[in-house]
Structures are given as C-alpha cells and as structure tokens.
Amino acid sequence: MKSAPFPSKESSLEIALALLALVVGAGLPLQAGVNAAMARHAGRPEWAAFVNFAVGLAGLAAYLVVARIRPPTLAALAAAPAWSWVGGLLGAFYVTAIVVLTPRIGFALTLALTLAGQMVAALALDHAGALGLAARPITGTRLVGAVLLFAGVVLIRR
Predict the structure, then answer these.
(1) Which residues contact 108 (CB under 8 A, 6 or more apart)?
(2) Would you give the end-to-end CA distance of the chain in angstroms?
(3) What is the pLDDT of residues 52-105, one digit of tens each?
C-alpha cells in the first residue's frame, strides 16, 4: 500500500500537539530555575510563587485584551462545578513546591519525580474517565511505560 505524500490533517494535528507538549515540558525546568532564583531574591518560596502568578496574570490579561477575547458571563462561571475552581490552588502548590525542591535536589530529579507523580495520577484519572474526560483504560503497554518512567527516576537519582 502506497502512503500519501503528505500527512493527513489528523496526523499533522497530532504532530503539532505532540510538539507543543514537548515545548511546554521543556519549559518546566526553566520555570523551576527562574522561580528558584526569584525565591533567593524574595526570601521565601511563597513570595516567588506569588510573583510567578502575578506576572502570569498580567501577561494573560494583556493577551486577552490584545486578542479581544470576550470574558465569560457570570452565569457561565457560576454553573462551573465547584471542583473546577481548584486548578489555581493546585498550580500555586506545584509552583511553590518546585521552588522548594529544585535548589535542594536539582532540576533533573525534581522534574523526574514530579513527572512520575503526574503519570500515576494521569493513569488513574484516564482509567476512571475523571473530571468529565473520556475514559482511557490502563493497559499493559501503558503500565509498562509508567514502570519505565519510574525506572528512569531511579537511574536519575543514582
């Protein structure tokens, strides 16, 4: 069977999304280092996290204005499930913890451990179809991938 000379729209989108995920992932250790540097100047990891979110809020607000994206209605926000408001708290916890961990255990181990934790949670959430997303069962292949990720954490630690 002869393959098409150009990738399909769907595969092009998958490639673009995978590249975006890689870029976002590459930004996490940079964010960890930048925030750790801010903590040294601010004197506390909590203040570094606060500065992180304040600058992020200002940047996002500027983008929303420039892109002319309309705000949601109060009714739409009021209809959101209560658990959907926790994202900011989880983000604040993550950023503060990263600021504490990175100078103490290094970039690689901090990110390897957080990635391993993300993988365990992601497998469980996918399997359950949690938070309104489609269920994606834990398969043997996915489990092997998670085990290999944990093996990577052990190797990075040594």
Answers:
(1) 29, 156
(2) 47
(3) 999 999 999 999 999 999 999 999 999 999 999 999 999 999 999 999 999 999
